[in-house]
Amino acid sequence: MAGELGGAGRALYFVVPCYNEEEALPRASAVIAGKLKALIGAGKASPTSRVLFVDDGSRDGTWAKILSLCEGDPRFAGVALSRNRGHQAALYAGLMAARGRANMAVSLDADLQDDIDAVDAMIDACAKGCDIVYGTRARRESDTFFKRFTAEGYYKLLRLLGCEIVFNHADYRLMSDRALDALSLYGERDLFLRGLAPMLGFKTSTVEYARAERVEGESKYTLRAMLKLAADGALSLSLAPIRLVLCAGAAMLALAAALFIAWLAKPGLARSSEEWLALAASVWGAGGFITLSVGVAGEYAGRAYLESKRRPRYIISDTAGDIAPDIYDGRGGAP
Ligand code: UDP
Ligand code: MG
């Protein structure tokens, strides 16, 4: 089988970002390590494979749990960020820690909502030459109506804006060593990994799975974090919003010119007693439009300003297992 052929001797890293996940870690570590053992046994992954936890500045006992896991079993490794930087930055930190050691890295959430058994099909696809394999959700029944509705609407909006994005794919994904190298070349601070991955090119495929409900703890994604991720996706990947405003502005000017010409052509405009309403509407309309345009332009300018600072995406404060303490500082792939 192609899977066995390509899988043997290839190091697989599970990269698991964790924020206040002390409740989820016991099951996550047992299930993922069990899976890894089975994959190594089947020759799909090498014995040098690891489960790499990234502690994203947790306030609970997450890092202590990761440390004790690493002490008890060499298949575990850990990286701790100096403070909470958010899921995308934490995942990126893990991927970059795995880079150079892993032949394949699979990103996975600590709550195991994403079906870990889909990894077999991902590894098979990788062995057949795919550098990125996207896990996509077959069903969304486990999500609330609000989450399902907003998430699906958001994918559609991004597509409309011209962003290449894999439908119903979050961050459950296999990336090859080449794909990790390519990812490290992208310099943006505001990360939207599921939008960056399709930009890398290479041969890709998808594996469908059913997403389960979170068993331990609560979602660590606040509404605010979700909105930020949504804005990062729409604004960092596409210039469509600003172009839309530009086109709308041009159309409004053309309309104003046409109205002015029409007015000039008339001997005298008919005036109704309600004319002030139309006037008020146009004043508010123009004001609103200008404000919105300034807002969109400001959003891009603000992002350019923040990106120009080239602040590190994260700082690593501790490492565990066989991860050297002097790894990647988060500034990007190029020196
Ligand atoms: N996470 C993180 N930093 C954060 C928020 C979340 O590393 O600031 C991790 C979290 O521990 C989990 C994953 O990202 O492993 C996805 O978060 P969660 O399951 O809470 O999101 P949801 O599935 O509800 O979208
Ligand atoms: Mg979750």
Which keywords apply here?
binds magnesium ion, 2 domains, 8-stranded mixed β-sheet, disordered N terminus, alpha/beta, 8 strands, Spore Coat Polysaccharide Biosynthesis Protein SpsA, Chain A, binds uridine-5'-diphosphate, elongated, 335 residues
Provide structural commentary:
48% of the residues lie in helices and 14% in strands. The protein is α/β, with parallel strands linked by helices. It has 2 domains: 7-237 and 311-320, Alpha-Beta Complex (Spore Coat Polysaccharide Biosynthesis Protein SpsA, Chain A), CATH 3.90.550; 240-308. Strands 7-5-6-4-1-2-3-8 form an 8-stranded mixed sheet, with helices on both faces. Helix 10 packs antiparallel against helix 11. It is elongated and about 90 Å long. Magnesium ion is lined by residues 109, 111, 113, 214, 219.
List the helices and strands and how they pair.
Elements (H helix, E strand, L loop, with lengths): L1 H6 L4 E7 L6 H17 L8 E6 L6 H11 L3 E6 L5 H12 L5 E4 L11 H9 L4 E6 L7 H16 L8 E8 H7 L9 H7 L4 E6 L13 H15 L2 H26 L9 H34 L7 E5 L15
Parallel strand pairs: 1-2, 1-4, 2-3, 5-7
Antiparallel strand pairs: 3-8, 4-6, 5-6
Helix pairs in contact: 10-11
The structure holds uridine-5'-diphosphate and magnesium ion (MG).
Task: Summarize the entry for a quick read.
This protein is an alpha/beta fold and 335 residues long. The protein is 48% helix and 14% strand.
The CATH architecture assignment of the largest domain turns out to be Alpha-Beta Complex
Q: Give the tally of structural domains.
A: 2
Provide the spatial order of strands within the biggest beta sheet: 7-5-6-4-1-2-3-8
Given as residue ranges, the uncertain stretches (5+ residues, pLDDT < 50) are 1-7
Are any ligands bound, and if so which?
uridine-5'-diphosphate, magnesium ion
Structural class by helix and strand composition: alpha/beta
